[in-house]
Amino acid sequence: MHELHTIFQRSPEVALFLSLAIGYYIGRINFGSFQLGGVGGTLLAAVLISQAGVTIDSGVKALMLSVFIYAVGYSSGPQFFASFNRKTLREFALAAFLALSALVTVVACAKLFHLNKGLAAGLAAGALTQSAIVGTAGDAISRLGLPPTEVKFLQSEVAIAFAVTYVPGLLSAILVCVNIVPRFMREGLHDAAIKVENAAEGGIRLRPGRSASMPGLVGRAYRAGPAAGRTIAEIEGNQRDLITVERLRREDRLIDPAADVVLEKDDIILIVGLRKWVVVAAALLGEEVAEAEGISVEMESRQAVFARKGMNHVTISKARNSLDRALRRGVFILGITRAERPLPLLWETELQHGDVITFYGSPENTKRAVEVAGYDLPCSDKTDFVYLGLGLVSGLLLGLVVAYVGGFALTLGAGGGCLLMGLAFGWMRGKYPKYGAMPSAASQLLKDFGLSAFVATVGLNSGMQALLTIRQSGITILLLGIFVALFPLLLTMLFGRYVLRYNNSALLAGALAGSRAANPAFGQVLEKSESAVPTVPFAVTYAIASVLLALLGPLLVELV
Questions:
Q1: Is 160 strand, coil or helix?
Q2: In Å, how far from its chain's centre is CA 374?
Q3: Alpha-carbon distance 467 to 478, whole Å?
Q4: Do 494 and 479 form a contact (C-beta atoms < 8 A)?
Q5: Nearest Cα to 286, choosing from 319, 344, 245, 256?
Q6: Other Cβ atoms within 10 Å of 62 Cβ, number
Q7: pLDDT tens across 128-187, in order?
Q8: What do you get for the CA distance between the two ends of the chain, in Å?
C-alpha cells in the first residue's frame, strides 16, 4: 500500500487511468441480469483505489464535467429546440415533483432520527448528489444568528453527511435510471429510443454497422434486347428520369451515353436509379448481366447546403421541375436534414435555405448538383476547435452568473452553463452547418471520457474520507442516504408513468436523470440507449433541477 501511495503522490494521473481501466472491466460483468456499467464500475474502482491515499486536483473534476455536459448539449441542440413546446411542461412538473418529494423525505428522516440542521442538509446534498446544497445550506446556517462555534459545528456536519452519502447517491441514480426504469416499463432503453426515432423519421433506423438488405438506390447491368433502337433519353424519360444510363459498352469499346445515342442489340448498359423504377425498366431493357468488364463506374455521395436563390420554401417537386434535365440527370438524393434532423424524402417536402442535401451519383454529376443547389459541405474528420472553445468559454462564463432570490445566491454552475451553451451552439451548428464541425466519434469521446474521468475524480477524492467517516459515525447516515437517494426517485418514476403518462422508458429515464441532475446516470442512459433521444427531457429537467435542488439547502435549515 505504501508503494502505491508513493506512486499516486508522484503521479496522481496513474490512479485516474487505473480507475477507468478497472472500472470499465468491472462494468462489463453481468450479475444475473444486472450490469453496473462503465461509469458505475469506475466509481467503485476509484473508491477502492482512494484507500491508498490519492488526491486529484478539483480543477480536473470541473473540466471533465464541463466537457461532458457541453458535448451532450452540442449533439442534441437541434432536437432540443425543435422539441421545446407545451409538451415539455411535463418535464417541469417531473423536476418539481422530485424536488418536493426529496424535501419531504429528508425532513421526515431528520425528524424521525433527530438529525440536526447540518446533518439534514448534508444528507440531502450527498444523497441527491448536489454539492450546491452544501453551499446554500452553509450560507443559511451562517445567517441563523448562532454562536460562531455552533455555526462551525453545523457546517462541518453538512460536510460529513455529504461525504458519506455522495457515492451511494451516484450509484442509486444509475441503478434506478438504467436498470429499474427499463424493467418497470418492460422496455429496453435501446428499443425505446429506436421507437421514438422511427416515429420522428417515418422509417426504420439502422443500427451502426448494419445496412438495408434492399437499398433504395441500385445499379444493374443489362444486355440490350427490347431496348434496341431506342435512345438513351427515351429509356430514362419513360421512368421519369429516375434512372440513369451511366455506362454504355458496344462490343469492346465504351461509348458516351449521350441523350441522343440509339441503342443497338447486345449493347451492355449500366443503369443506376431508384429500385422501384429500375425494376419497372428491367422488362423493357433485356437480359440482366451479372458481370461486364469495364462497365462499372465509381459513385460517390456529397453534401451540399441548400442556398439556391429564388428557391427558399419550395417543394422538392417544384425545385426538380424548375431545373433543366441536363442539370438534374444522374443525380439522386440520399437524404435531407434540417438542423441535423432528417426530413422525409417526399415530392411535397419543402426545402429551406440551410437544409443539408446528400447527393449520390458519379463525381462529376454530384459536383454539378452541389454547385446548382448551393455550396459544398465537405466531409471532415476534424473538430472546429475555435467553435468548441468559444462554446465552452461561454458556458463557463454563464455558470459564473449569480442570481439572488430571497437573499440566497443561485447559480447554474459550470455544468448548467455548459449544458445550455452546448444546446445553443449545437442548434447554431444545425442552422449554419458550414461552421462548428465536430465528428460524431469526437463528440462520443468527449462524452465518454469526460463523464468517466469526472466520476473517477469524485471517487478518488471522496472515497477515503467517506469510509473513514462511516467507521467513526456509524452507518445510520449511510443507510439514510441510500433511502433518500432511492425513495424520491422511485416515487417520481411512478408519478411520471401514471400521472404524467410517460410511456417510453428512454424518455422517462432521461427525464429522471435530469430531475436529479445526475450526470453519471444520464451518461449510462445514453450508453444503453445508443441514441440522443433521452437528451431532450434530460436537458429540460436538468435546468430546472439545478435551481430547485439548490434551494433545498436553506429550506432544510429552516424546516429542521
A1: helix
A2: 29
A3: 10
A4: no
A5: 245
A6: 17
A7: 988 778 767 777 787 788 888 888 788 777 777 877 888 788 889 999 999 999 999 999
A8: 43
pTM for the structure as a whole: 0.65
What backbone phi and psi angles, to 5 degrees, belong to 343? -105, 150
Q: Which residues contact 4 (CB under 8 A, 6 or more apart)?
A: 52
d(CA 85, CA 144): 42
Q: Per-residue pLDDT tens for 227-249?
A: 899 999 999 888 888 899 999 99
Q: What is the DSSP string of 63-119?
A: HHHHHHHHHHHHHHHHHHHHH-SGGGHHHHHHHHHHHHHHHHHHHHHHHHHT--HHH
Q: Within 10 Å of residue 427's Cβ, how many Cβ atoms?
A: 21
The full set of domains in the chain, from first to last, is 217-289 (3.30.70.1450), 300-376 (3.30.70.1450)
- H or E, element range at 559: helix 552-559
- Please determine, for residue 360, whether its predicted confidence score (pLDDT) is greater than 80: yes
pLDDT band at 555 (very low <50, low <70, confident <90, very high): confident
For residue 337 the three cell numbers come to 436534414
Give pLDDT tens digits for 453-498: 887 887 788 777 667 766 666 688 889 999 999 999 999 999 999 9
pLDDT surpasses 60 at 208: no
Q: Which residues are registered as beta bridge partners of 248?
A: 255, 269
